[in-house]
Write a structure and sequence with these properties.
The structure is a single chain. This protein has 199 residues and is α/β, with parallel strands linked by helices. It has two domains: 48 residues, Orthogonal Bundle (Helicase, Ruva Protein, domain 3), CATH 1.10.8; 94 residues, Dna Topoisomerase Vi A Subunit, Chain: A, domain 2, CATH 3.40.1360.10. 45% of the residues lie in helices and 11% in strands. The chain is built from eight helices and six strands, in the order H-H-H-E-E-H-E-H-E-H-E-H-E-H. Strands 4-3-5-6 form a four-stranded parallel sheet. The chain has a two-stranded antiparallel ribbon with strand order 1-2. Helix 1 crosses helix 2. It is globular, with a radius of gyration of 21 Å. The protein starts with 6 loop residues before the first helix and ends in a 5-residue tail after the last helix. The model has no long low-confidence stretch (mean pLDDT 90).
Length: 199
């Protein structure tokens, strides 16, 4: 990194590596931190610096937590027979915010992506199969994203889980609430039509 000793430019470069943060946003954040409360800047820096030591993956589901097992896996009110498989921790958060699922989660931290170097040999399938057998899971809901990699992963998991004798379902996809049909892509519209239900 060559910033000529400029700490502001160094911070802008680091911030712009975050997903969804371009150079303009990074510069705005840097100046906000610089012009704000010095204690806030110190606390923010300390939180970022110590996060990798304080946070780990749940040994059961893979969610980020400060304990060996996360709060959801330790919650006796949640059904161990129903497992929702997602690609990333933020996907589990999204499902959880909807307040419609009372089972448990399994976070893959990967999707099948042969071009990106993740084929069946590198894919973390075994921990999922072992968990399904160990915890007596009866149904697995596949909630991988509706992308090429997400669909390929869902098909692969469905095949492997069916072979293990587990019921498998896939979350529906369609037109988002408040969405306009004019701007909806053809694949999403097709799935919405296929997944229609009587009213």
């Amino acid at each position: 990194m060559t910033d000529g000793g400029d700490p502001i430019q160094a911070l802008v470069r680091l911030l712009s590596r975050l997903p969804g943060v371009g150079e303009k946003s990074a510069r705005r954040i840097a100046y906000h931190v610089l012009g704000g409360d010095p204690e806030y800047a110190r606390t923010l820096g300390e939180a970022i610096a110590t996060m990798s030591q304080r946070v780990r993956r749940c040994e059961s589901c893979g969610a980020y937590t400060t304990r060996a097992r996360c709060a959801l896996c330790d919650d006796p009110r949640r059904s161990a027979e129903l497992l929702c498989v997602v690609a990333r921790p933020m996907d589990a958060d999204a499902v959880e915010r909807a307040r419609v699922f009372q089972g448990r989660y399994h976070i893959l931290h990967a999707l099948l992506d042969p071009l990106g170097g993740v084929g069946p040999a590198e894919f973390p399938l075994q921990p999922l199969l072992e968990r399904v057998a160990r915890e007596g899971v009866r149904e697995v809901i596949l909630a991988t994203p509706p992308t090429v990699e997400g669909e390929a992963t869902a098909l692969y998991l469905a095949e492997c889980l069916h072979a293990a004798g587990v019921a498998v379902s896939r979350i529906a996809s369609g037109v988002p609430h408040g969405g306009d049909l004019e701007f909806t892509d053809p694949i999403t519209l097709g799935r919405a039509m296929e997944g229609r239900r009587s009213v």
